[in-house]
Design goal:
Layout lengths: L1 E7 L10 H9 L3 H9 L5 H9 L6 H9 L7 H10 L2 E10 H10 L7 E9 L2 E5 L7 E2 L3 E2 L1 H9 L2 E8 L13 E4 L1 H9 L5 E2 L3 H11 L3
Parallel strand pairs: 1-2, 1-7, 2-3, 7-8, 8-9
Antiparallel strand pairs: 3-4, 5-6
Length: 215
């Protein structure tokens, strides 16, 4: 068994803004009523995201520029290096798409970070999702079942830490050894009696892991 892994959600956890909000705010005002429908349970997460990502209507250079404008937690690049230097492996686990995550990782010079997410690609001025219903991590609702990914990683590592911020993260939080929760995830886990450490930033996560002697 390998020693430990740190798995983080991307949108709202590593990034300070969800990519779908950037698209809605910039290109797709119709996404606001759609967001309400989704939150009311009238749409699956993956259908909402697919519709938003296919409503950008810009050349790829512009889309990449927009992706790189996403603000991220400033401490993330150094936190990832610290995890890797201390014998841990860092993973990103996202129910968005790897299309924009890979651009961000490259932009910040972040290396050796595998990404579990919905496959995405640029075509005809939009971002499209390629969902494989036969994939072992497939979920009808999210495209990717985060709990399955964490359970699989736990077969390889002694300890799996997880960080997230919203409803899709409430499921893997039940499987991870310890979850760091931001924003809405804190109340969701509290309601379900799932233990967690409340945080606002990766700096706080690092301080916690330092005190434990993990990093």
């Amino acid at each position: 068994m390998k020693k430990w892994a740190f798995v983080s959600d991307f949108d709202g956890t590593i990034s300070k803004k969800d990519f779908y909000w950037l698209v809605i705010d910039t290109y797709y005002p119709e996404g606001k009523p759609l967001y309400k429908k989704w939150k009311a349970g009238e749409m699956q997460d993956i259908d909402f995201l697919s519709q938003v990502f296919q409503s950008i209507d810009q050349h790829e250079e512009q889309i990449i520029q927009d992706i790189l404008s996403l603000p991220i937690d400033e401490h993330v690049p150094s936190f990832i290096r610290t995890v890797q230097e201390r014998g841990g492996d860092f993973y990103i686990l996202s129910a968005g798409t790897d299309y924009y995550i890979h651009h961000i990782l490259e932009h910040y010079g972040i290396k050796d970070v595998p990404v579990f997410s919905n496959k995405g690609y640029y075509e005809d001025k939009n971002v499209h999702l390629s969902i494989d219903e036969n994939h072992k991590h497939y979920s009808r609702r999210y495209g990717i079942d985060k709990s399955k990914v964490i359970a699989e990683l736990k077969e390889t590592y002694d300890v799996v830490y997880f960080a997230g911020d919203s409803e899709p993260d409430s499921h893997p939080a039940k499987v991870a050894d310890l979850t760091f929760a931001k924003d809405a995830l804190q109340d969701l886990l509290k309601e379900n009696n799932v233990p967690y450490v409340a945080v606002d930033s990766f700096l706080q996560i690092e301080e916690f892991l330092r005190e434990k002697g993990t990093v």
